[in-house]
User: What shape does this take?
Amino acid sequence: MTGDRDIELRAFVEAWQVAAARLEALRREGLCNVEVADHIKALNGAFEAMLARPAKSSSGLVEQQAIFARKRNAGSVPPGR
Assistant: This one.
């Protein structure tokens, strides 16, 4: 039984090694064929929208940490987490 399972696992690992190499090749090919100008145009609306928003006075990190502290003090967060 163990021998059959080992063969299956080796085949599985080998298949993913082949797939990983192919996926990496596709990723590299995609990066080499990027039309930067097209992507900039596509993102322009998002940039414009962010510029139109009023600036935040805070990133929210202070508020987030305060929430975590309250939960920790209430006992809903285990110590050390």
Remarks:
- The chain has one domain: 2-74.
- The chain has three helices and no strands.
